[in-house]
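Annex B. Sample input.
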Amino acid sequence: MYSKRLRAGLPTFSVIVLAGAVLLTGCSADKYFMVPKSDLGDMNAAVQSQRATLVTMEQNATVRQEKVLEHNEAATQKVLDAITAQVEKPSCPPIPAQKSCAATEKAQGRADRLKGKVIVGEVENFYLADPGLIYIARIDSGAETSSIDARNITRFERDGSNWVRFDVPVPNTEEFVTLEKEISRRVKIVQASTDEGESRVVVELQFSIGDHKQVAEFTLTDRSNLNYQALIGRNVLRDVMLIDVGKEYATELPESIRTNNDNGKE
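Annex B, continued. Sample output.
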């Protein structure tokens, strides 16, 4: 029975202990954790002051940002205006036209033409480009291949090809100029005064008659006993020239050629 009263009294004791703990806790909190009521006013004033400061700083930052944006917009607009303006490049004054002298007929040379063909006489000044000499040539439609006066004709081989070395006379002198040309072919020429044919070497030479320039085949032969050192045959005349029978020197070589050579016929 004593034990029953003991068990029944335990809850009452626990309640008393719990109440005492709460009273002690309240005293401690008032000393260590609770803010005195006298300080609440100061704390509120400090909070309000800090809040006002933050608001002011935010406003100032907003103003500064707006000023920066305005400055950037102004700079950007200035650049855009400069691009839009597109300053024109400085232009140089026009170069005055140079007066050029028209080429005269003598400077260019002269050769009359009929339907695109050069009209030549029975005798013409003939310019041999290499070595740069003027000969008096006979224009002969009866000859098949053109011919040039050549001496000391010597055949030789070069790089597996047949070549020929020969001397051409310098008109109105005793001098000769040596030339070397690759052989184009060989031909057999039969003279009217003899029954035997003569084998001749054929080479290509560049020449001029009047203002006409051409490369054609020429046979090499000694023409020292003939009146003309060059003969123009049908291989040159064909489709290129027409002969005005009874006329001589129907063409005229360019002035630059005639100036450097005084051996041609004026």
